[in-house]
Write a structure and sequence with these properties.
Layout lengths: L8 H19 L3 E7 L5 E8 L11 E3 L7 H8 L3 E3 L2 H7 L1 H6 L5 E9 L2 E10 L9 H23 L11 E3 L14 H8 L3 E5 L5 E4 L1 H6 L7 H4 L4 H4 L8 H11 L3 E6 L5 E9 L2 E8 L17 H18 L5 H16 L3 E8 L2 E8 L3 H7 L9 H8 L3 E3 L2 H6 L11 E9 L2 E10 L7 H38 L10 E8 L9 E8 L4 E9 L4 H19 L4 H15 L5 E9 L4 E7 L5 E3 L5 E3 L18 E5 L5 E5 L1 H4 L6 H14 L4 H12 L9 E8 L4
Parallel strand pairs: 2-7
Antiparallel strand pairs: 1-2, 1-6, 2-3, 4-5, 5-6, 8-9, 8-12, 10-11, 11-12, 13-14, 13-17, 15-16, 16-17, 18-27, 19-20, 20-21, 21-22, 22-25, 23-24, 23-26, 26-27
Helix pairs in contact: 1-5, 3-16, 11-12, 12-16, 16-17, 17-18, 20-21
Length: about 700
């Protein structure tokens, strides 16, 4: 075909539809979808879908290519390779987010639509349950052939100036409908169905009635005269009370997984009906019959089917869990969230999260588990023959509907009062980071949909747990580094009482650059210093160590306060640190009872006189260190009679979000005036006023000095 004869847009869309339908027929798939990239290349929009009801795929109509979310369609386009997902559990393990939206057991193939080096979109096909878990060589070749054909169509349209952009609303093509039988006419098949005590009904993938017999109409409370008008209507709209029974969820599961399913429902006025759904690519056949139970007789607990209301409850808790996990910073927070929401969402009675640690199993979170049982299973070696350990070593989920099933598998049933268990390995980055164990006090079936949902949720928890444990490890390293850079002990200086405090920022912050020091210069002289390096990082901490060392060296060499800061400033400029540093330096002469102070952009100290009058010292400002190599730092002298208190501090004490600095300093002056005599009491009083809840948004360093008479 010549490029100037290439079909126009409507014909291109029609040909694209034919490529998808023929691909489905050739591979034996029952649903398929084509996504197209938007002109900017950042979004995948659903263009056409075969065999899927529109209301089922709402959240999947637009997929963003940017970001870190794991999605098989996005991966196929980004990496330009074919993605094969062998089952619902495989999808949940590898791509937990999309599996939560559509937790149905089916095999799927995802392939990029390419022509040359350009990726135009993606093609997705789903296969009925029961096919081979592997995609054969010929099947792969056929999938790629269909995708290349679609790519050729799209490239040809673009070359003629008619690039096909995604439709504002996706097109949904119906599957092939089977021939319908007129139940009101005279036909041997209709006569056969009329004689049976059970009803027969057929619906398409969208839930629309294609056939219904008289018995079904009677069981559902519809008159025989209404049958001709039912064809083409949605079953749940024709029979509104079915919405309360979970029918829509069961129909959706059957369409996606191609697996038979069943449930019981109580019809208005009493009487229990059994619904059995048998799907194939053309629709769903529904058998309806009375079970003989009265409507007021409750079904056994372990056989109850999930209603729409309970499904909404599960979705609510899982969405809450997913949102909360994004904010969880520590492994303990992840464990608490997982334990709480698993119990609520899946109606389990016990839950425990286990992680491997030094060759043993450690329980980091639990609910409903007694202390005796914890002591028996916590710290067990990874070689123990326990199902929870198998999850850590093999990475395979295990579900046991009863104690007999567990024992038959070779596992040892714990004396925990439970009768059913789910062992969910937590897989992150391809290896197990833990196991989640659910326990039920009665036998509990785990249908395929629930297994897929449990597996997908456990994958989300695994990712959050891995991230949290990395955060915990980084925090330990950071705090250890910071503690190593700060002075372990302050020197004893006659005539001077000292107290120091360092409080790291609360949740979510990394290592900071706040520092303090007390340097003994002679028997009667000392230097006090406090500072703050810009930022929260290992780099900031490293620079803090350099600044502290430089100040210490210049102070011991006998430099005056302004000269100590000037030399340190020139050193930072030469190092090209690119981080700003504030610093306050004081030279204390305990013989003359004086203090010389100089500041490099740091907060001035509080001064409490012996008569308890307190003020914020007014120091001449100097520029931050590391900015101007020619900067000068003037100093001032203050008297230090016996009982004088100086309080040096960093931003964390004074900069409180939502408050005024002037009000804060006034309040802290009042606290200092009424604080005790000892520096430790004074430090505690200042911190209690500035951070009463302990919710610190910044690091806080505090150095309190009190002059006293020497013996």
């Amino acid at each position: 075909m010549k490029t100037d004869q290439f079909p126009q847009e409507a014909i291109v869309r029609n040909l694209l539809d034919q490529v998808l339908v023929r691909a489905l027929e050739g591979l034996g798939a029952h649903t398929g979808t084509i996504f197209l990239r938007d002109p900017a290349g950042e979004i995948l929009d659903m263009e056409v879908s075969v065999g899927l009801p529109p209301e089922f795929v709402g959240p999947l109509r637009r997929l963003r290519l940017a970001g870190t979310a794991s999605d098989p369609v996005v991966e196929a386009v980004r990496e330009r390779h074919l993605v094969w997902v062998r089952s619902g559990e495989d999808l949940a393990r590898r791509y937990p987010a999309p599996a939560m939206l559509m937790p149905y057991d089916r095999a799927q193939v995802f392939v990029p639509i390419m022509a040359g080096e350009t990726v135009w979109g993606a093609m997705v096909m789903s296969f009925p349950h029961g096919r081979s878990p592997e995609l054969g060589t010929d099947e792969r070749r056929s999938v790629w052939s269909s995708a290349r054909c679609a790519g050729w169509l799209l490239r040809g349209a673009a070359e003629t100036g008619s690039r096909l952009t995604p439709s504002p609303v996706p097109r949904f093509l119906p599957g092939v409908e089977s021939a319908a039988v007129d139940p009101t006419g005279s036909h041997p098949a209709a006569d056969f169905l009329r004689r049976l005590p059970e009803g027969a009904c057929c619906v398409d993938a969208n839930g629309r009635i294609t056939f219904i017999d008289r018995t079904s109409a009677g069981l559902l409370g519809l008159g025989a005269q209404s049958i001709p008008g039912l064809r083409g209507s949605v079953l749940c709209e024709a029979v509104p009370w079915l919405r309360r029974t979970g029918y829509e969820d069961r129909h959706r599961a059957a369409v996606f997984s191609m697996l038979p399913t069943s449930f019981t429902a109580v019809r208005p006025g009493g009487g229990r009906l059994l619904f059995q759904l048998y799907p194939d690519p053309t629709g769903v056949s529904v058998r309806i019959r009375e079970t003989g139970d009265r409507g007021d007789a409750p079904a056994p607990r372990d056989m109850k089917e999930e209603t729409s209301a309970s499904r909404l409850r599960v979705v609510h808790h899982l969405l809450h869990l997913a949102g909360s996990l994004t904010q969880a910073a520590t492994a303990g927070e992840v464990a608490d969230l997982a334990a709480e929401h698993f119990l609520l969402a899946f109606q389990a009675q016990t839950v425990a999260l286990l992680v491997p640690e030094a060759g043993r199993v450690r329980i980091i979170g639990h609910r409903g588990v007694g202390a005796e049982l914890l002591s028996r299973f916590d710290r067990k070696p990874l070689t123990a023959q326990l199902p929870s350990v198998f999850g850590l070593t093999t990475g395979a989920p295990a579900f046991f509907a009863s104690r007999q099933e567990l024992c038959a598998s070779g596992g040892v049933a714990a004396d925990d009062g439970m009768s059913a268990w789910a062992y969910l390995p937590l897989i992150a980055s391809g290896y197990p980071v833990g196991t989640c164990v659910l326990g039920y006090d009665r036998p509990h079936r785990f249908p395929s949909e629930e297994r897929a949902l449990l597996t997908s949720v456990s994958a989300l928890i695994a990712q959050a747990l891995e991230r949290a444990r990395q955060y915990d490890a980084q925090q330990q390293v950071a705090h250890g580094l910071q503690a190593g850079l700060l002075p372990r002990h302050l020197p004893v200086v006659p005539g001077l009482q000292v107290a120091a405090r360092y409080l790291p920022a609360s949740h979510g912050m990394d290592i900071g650059g706040d520092f303090y020091d007390l340097i003994r210069l002679s028997a009667t002289e000392a230097a006090a210093v406090i500072g703050d390096v810009q930022g929260h990082s290992v780099r900031a901490a490293g620079l803090m160590g350099q600044v502290r060392t430089a100040v210490h060296a210049y102070a011991v060499a006998g430099a005056a306060p302004g000269e100590v800061l000037a030399r340190t400033n020139r050193l930072l400029v030469d190092l090209e640190a690119d981080l700003l540093v504030s610093c306050l330096y004081a030279h204390l002469d305990l013989t003359r009872r004086t203090a010389h102070l100089a500041t490099a952009g740091h907060w001035p100290p509080f001064l409490r006189r012996p008569d308890l009058r307190t003020e914020l010292l007014d120091l001449p400002p100097g520029p931050l260190l590391g900015v101007d190599p020619a900067a000068e730092y003037p100093s001032v002298q203050v008297a230090l009679p016996d009982g004088t208190v100086l309080a040096f501090y960093t931003d964390g004490l004074i900069e409180i979000p939502g408050t005024d600095h002037a009000v804060d300093t006034t309040a802290l002056c009042a606290v200092l005036s009424h604080a005790g005599r000892l520096p430790h009491d004074i430090a505690d009083a200042l911190l209690a006023r500035a951070q009463p809840t302990g919710n610190r948004t910044d690091d806080t360093a505090l150095l309190v000095l009190r002059a006293e008479a020497t013996a």
